[in-house]
Amino acid sequence: MRDAQRRVEEFVRENQLRGKTAFRILDLAAEIGEIAGDAAKSAGYGVKEDEIEVKEDEIGDALFSLLRVASDLGIDAEEALEKSLAKYKSRIEEKGDPGSK
């Protein structure tokens, strides 16, 4: 993941894709919305649940946006993921469920 985050940082720098962090977060939300839209449409808005399809490039766009936001905030995405996995593992071990409640 560090390599992916570094590659995104380099791409942003090389292509002068400047922007304020707040707008990058909005872009991330928009990309996630596109994934949700693909899923909802392909599944007939819940009628054909087994037919969910999401375009691979939409997942890539969301990852790109997320890694940009992480870099803007000085967060190592790989370290953040490791902490999240540990948190979920702990919840499962303690409660038998990964949920926060």
Textual characterization of the structure:
The chain is mostly helical and 101 residues long. The chain has a single domain, classed as Helix Hairpins (Orthogonal Bundle). Helices cover 70% and strands 0% of the residues. The chain has helices at 2-14, 21-42, 56-72, 77-95. The longest helix is centred in the first third of the chain and has 22 residues, at 21-42.
Question: Which features would summarize this protein structure in a list?
Answer:
101 residues; mainly alpha; Helix Hairpins; 70% helix; 0% strand; flat; Nucleotide pyrophosphohydrolase; MazG-like_dom
Give the helices and strands, then pairings.
Layout: H1 2-14, H2 21-42, H3 56-72, H4 77-95
Helix pairs in contact: 1-3, 2-3
CATH topology: Helix Hairpins
Count every beta strand, where a strand is a DSSP E run of 2 or more residues: 0
* Low-confidence residue ranges: none
Instruction: Tell me the count of domains.
Output: 1
The top-level CATH class is Mainly Alpha
Strand content: under 5%
How would you sum up the major sheet? none
Discrete helix count: 4
In N-to-C order, the SSE pattern is: HHHH
Task: State mean pLDDT (0 to 100 scale).
Answer: 94
Round the Cα radius of gyration to an integer and report it: 17 Å
Principal-axis shape: flat
- Measured between the Cα atoms of the first and last residue, the distance is 29 Å
Helix content: over 70%
The CATH homologous superfamily name equals MazG-like
Structural class: mainly alpha
CATH architecture: Orthogonal Bundle
